[in-house]
Specification:
2 copies of one chain form a homodimer. By secondary structure, the first copy, chain A, is of the alpha/beta class. In chain A, strands 10-9-11-8-7-12-13 form a 7-stranded parallel sheet, sandwiched between helices. In chain A, helix 7 links the parallel strand 4 and strand 5. The longest helix of chain A has 17 residues. Chain A is globular and about 70 Å long. The termini of chain A are far apart. Chains A, B: This is Gamma-glutamyl phosphate reductase. Chains A, B: One of its GO terms (molecular function) is glutamate-5-semialdehyde dehydrogenase activity.
Chain lengths: ~425, ~425
């Protein structure tokens, strides 16, 4: 086995090597990129014992430094989890090549032929937290879209990430592809992250993944353009005409199916005219499913066992079996609440009034706005993208679930025969 | 006449007023936005005497503080120039509405109907230098695309901008549109610019226009997402097979037609095999047109009157009748030179070798890559966009000439009938 562990002396040198490698990987055919990913999947499987051993060191250090049980579980890689990583890489290999699509075509009056085509960004940077699966995930998506990648995965998963990255780099080298296309700055600690955020001109786009605080830091400090992915303080409005069954089923699904993800609902706003009809049965169904409901006084007056909500509740992404509920006078007040507290991820209204549904869809300023559906549908897989790079909550470049095409930029090609501008 | 001069006490308050106004303007019909622009054009014409008087004060202060003749000319507004501003607004009014386009449509297996539609950004910020025409330009493009705008136009044009902005705000108010949709932070000086760059959550995107230094400052300091528009160190490569006539005509056109703009060529790279055939006549044609050619030794040996080029020449966007020329060994060396010095705006190759043309188109990493055409074609008007917001040299969101659609974001709308995720 080749050993191509990343060894350049500085973080900046590593990034320059990645930039160089980006030229080669950016021009590879669909087939060669697919073959590279299949080789990466195989290499990850072969490296499973080494990866699990490296991960054991990370876990031991994590336990010693007091990582929570939840974080330790996210960090853990056993043989089945490594196999799942390899399988995910094969899924990415099967996706269509996002590079080389002709997005616009026009012939200028002078006869110059113009084409707007999709091209790789070049170098994608990613800063994320102790989740070794993100290492493989982002690297695979980058290779599929012809990009080089520079990873900064956090100290807690350092050994696991190093083992995975070495396996992936070896696979590239065996395929005749410059292994510097998969790069890490993990071993430079915080300095590596800082260099990555300031690598304007080398790194083309930075995708932070992790806590709201991590994302805030990257957005604020980076001079490299950032795609913000996001925190979700997600709202469901129960309109006056909301059918009880839809209201109950959608709220419970949106909260309970997977409470720790960004598309789970956090706040339910009930229009006053529907409160006496809906609050009690919806709260009861949530409580039956193990949810603690934090309600305002009007909610508490209509349902037993409600914990009093404070202003902090409206701002909280619980990521747990907690939910905030408030009675609002009307749709106007619901929209004002959403304007104030939404993180612009996903909001849904449950209603049988088409005018109210269309008003909600038009006026709510979020990446995904729904009528009569669970907010859990906001997901690249559910949207049919095949893979999800993250869910963008910003308005530039990409908004909502991002698939492989969102990892490309564009370029205009102009073919002439001596034309000059008059 | 109403007077709606911007008066809120702080730059932040002004921006919050713009954010509020964005909700209204973002929902206006095509017709109402068009009417608003026609009213703005009329108001600018009516305000011409006041605008010219305000401009005279700016010019006087500019002369006193020693502004260059070129900058004074850019700053000057006489009655015909004001009429041209109004005419430009009418041109923008005639463009199709970029909002509400359905960009993607799919039905999920559960029956939820998804649509991806174009929506306004919300609030666009712009930081630019002493050119009052940009004030009207950006405001008109913002209104056409349903966005509010916050302008920071520089102290040198402060009075002119204030007069134009008041006229535009009055016109909005008369149309029943919240005038806070056109906002300025000019009277807060540098502090206004700083607040604008840090108005994350209020301002959705920032478009700097002006010198490379201005753009660099905004990109580095802003926490609001920036669309970088750009400096152009633009290259033309004369390949071994380049026909003399194409080479000469295209190089002269690309340099001479309008030397002060970003798509003008700055550096010509001549492949060695063509040097003895092309350098002398191309240099002569440039010199005939008044161009000073800065050449390396090989160029100087082949043509008379060439000024010696230094490394600084390869990095310079002259914006004048100067041009740098270098002989390179082959296409590889030309591509390496471009990688090192290009600002990723526009590059063109002159060749009759299709393989070399296609290699150049594939490998050069610039917003617009050409074969056998003048770099002056990189322009929103030439591309048929009807208006140009600027030429993006970044890879995120927009690349190359930006038209009105580039001033929109997207939103996913989901319409269901009670669906939950299984």
């Amino acid at each position: 086995m080749i050993s191509t562990a990343a060894t350049a002396a500085t973080a900046r040198e590593r990034m320059l090597l990645a930039k160089d490698a980006a030229r080669q990987i950016g021009l590879l055919s669909d087939e060669r990129k697919r073959d590279a990913l299949l080789a990466i999947a195989g290499a990850i499987e072969s490296a499973a014992p080494a990866v699990v051993a490296a991960n054991a060191e990370d876990l031991e250090r994590g336990r010693a430094t007091g990582l929570s049980a939840g974080l330790l579980d996210r960090l853990r890689l056993d043989e089945p989890r490594v196999a799942a990583l390899a399988a995910a890489v094969r899924d990415v290999a099967a996706l269509p090549d996002p590079v080389g699509r002709v997005l616009d075509e026009r012939v200028l009056p002078s006869g110059v032929r113009l084409q707007k085509v999709s091209v790789p960004f070049g170098v994608i940077g990613s800063i994320y937290e102790a989740r070794p699966n993100v290492t493989v995930d982002i690297a695979a998506l980058a290779v599929r879209s012809g990009n080089a990648v520079v990873l900064r995965g956090g100290t807690a998963a350092e050994r696991s990430n190093a083992a995975l990255i070495t396996a992936m780099r070896d696979a590239l080298a065996e395929q005749g592809i410059d292994p510097e296309a998969i790069q890490t700055v993990d071993d430079f600690g915080r300095e590596g992250a800082r260099e990555l955020m300031n690598a304007r001109g080398i790194v083309d786009v930075l995708v932070p993944r992790g806590s709201a605080q991590l994302i805030e830091t990257v957005v604020t400090e980076s001079s490299v353009p950032v795609i913000e992915t996001g925190a979700g303080v997600v709202h469901i409005v129960l309109d006056e005409s909301a059918p009880l069954e839809w209201a109950r089923d959608i709220v419970v699904n949106a909260k309970v199916q997977r409470p720790s993800v960004c598309n789970a609902v956090e706040t339910v706003l009930v229009v006053r005219g529907a409160a006496s009809r809906l609050v009690d049965p919806v709260v009861a169904a949530l409580q039956d499913a193990g949810v603690t409901v934090h309600g305002d006084e009007a909610v508490a007056a209509l349902a037993p066992g409600v914990v009093p909500a404070t202003d902090a509740d409206w701002q909280t992404e619980y990521m747990s079996l907690d939910l905030a509920m408030r009675v609002v006078d009307d749709l106007d007040e619901a929209l004002a609440h959403i304007r104030r507290y939404s993180t612009h991820h996903t909001e849904s209204i449950i209603t049988q009034d088409d005018a109210n549904a269309e008003r909600f869809l038009a006026e709510v300023d979020s990446a995904v706005v729904m009528a009569n559906a669970s907010t859990r549908f906001t997901d690249g897989g559910e949207f049919g993208f095949g893979a999800e790079v993250g869910i963008s909550t910003q308005k530039l470049h990409a908004r909502g679930p991002m698939g492989l095409p969102e990892l490309t930029s564009t370029k205009w090609l102009a073919r002439g025969s001596g034309q000059v501008r008059s």
